[in-house]
Amino acid sequence: MSDLGDHPVNEGKGGLDSTRIAEVKAWLVSQFESVGKDVPEFEYTPRSISHLHSLATISQAKTQAAGIVASDLRQKAMEYRSQAARIREILQSVGLAQEGLPPNAVTSVQVVANVANLLNIRDTEMSSFLVAMADISLRKSGVEEKRANAQKESKLLLDYTRKAIARLTYLKRTLGQLEDDVATCEGQMNHWKTNLTIMLSKERQYLLQYSNYKALLNRVGYTSDISHGELVEMDEHRKELEKKTKPIMDTLRSYQDLPPDKALAALAIEEKRRQYAAAEKYLEEVLHSALATSE
Questions:
Q1: Looking at residue 156, what is its pLDDT?
Q2: For this chain's UniProt record, which GO biological process terms are given (predicted)?
């Protein structure tokens, strides 16, 4: 109990410290003398004096309260003993003393007394028993209702637990399947990645070809505005021009069998050239007209 870190209390500094120290010493002496021991020596410090004074105050208050309760209980015990003696005298006067009763009657009386004590009633009147039994019945009904609610909640919790366990089992099985599929999925992803690289290369190649074809079509005068009908019409003009130029080409081929007259052959060839040039000019005019109409 020694507190070496604090400084000793100077009893001469004030009356309050001396009074508290005296109260603490008196309380310690009374407590140790009650168990047959001497008060051990220790250093009185402000901290220890404050703590011990607080304990002494609480102990004295509880001791005083316990004395009051004990006195009241002793008074009640005396009253109960006097009342028991009076009741014993009354029972003996009417011939109902415990010594004169048969054993079964004594046993019945003891049972009634035990039941009264169990029911916490002060008498053995029928009304008191009925009130106590009614109170027990009400408490029993309340307990049964609480037990039914607890069983219902327990059943719900059990159902939730079973569902949670089933769900956990399903999730674990799904996780195992996913872990098994990881290798397959990784291989498939690598395959798709390789294909994607190839497709990107093809895309660049096709875009380049598209640009080249678009430039080629622009050079020949083809635009996206030319419809299928216009192409069909231009093809018909081409066929008509072929019909017109075919006799000329046949005639030119027949000149290969003529006798070698250079002057006539030159004149004939020049004529056919003019006709062929006129046909080509007509074909160009028709094409340009079709393109202009589409624009």
A1: 92
A2: cell division; spindle assembly
pLDDT of the residue at 295: 55
The widest CA-to-CA distance across the chain, in whole angstroms, is: 187
38 pLDDT tier (thresholds 50, 70, 90): confident
Residue in the structure block whose two tokens are 């999925």? 185
Which amino acid is residue 176, in one-letter code? G
First to last CA, the chain: 115
DSSP string, 177-191: HHHHHHHHHHHHHHH
Identify the residue with better confidence: 265 or 132: 132
Amino acid at 263: A
Interior CA angle at 216 toward 211 and 219, to 5°? Answer: 125
> Do 237 and 286 meet the contact criterion of CB atoms below 8 Å apart?
yes
Here the tokens at position 288 are 């340009």
Q: How far apart are CA 270 and CA 257, in angstroms?
A: 17
- Listed in sequence order, the residues at least 6 apart from 276 whose beta carbon sits closer than 8 Å to its beta carbon are 245, 248
Tokens of 226: 């030319």
d(CA 156, CA 161): 8
Q: Which two tokens stand for residue 206?
A: 């096709």
Residues 6+ apart with CB under 8 A from 28: 39, 52, 56
Q: Rounded to an integer, what distance in angstroms lies between the CA atom of residue 153 and that of residue 160? A: 10
CB neighbourhood size of 44 (10 A): 19
What are the phi and psi torsion angles at 35 (to 5°)? -110, 10
> Which of 243, 241, 246, 238 shows the shortest CA–CA distance to 272?
246
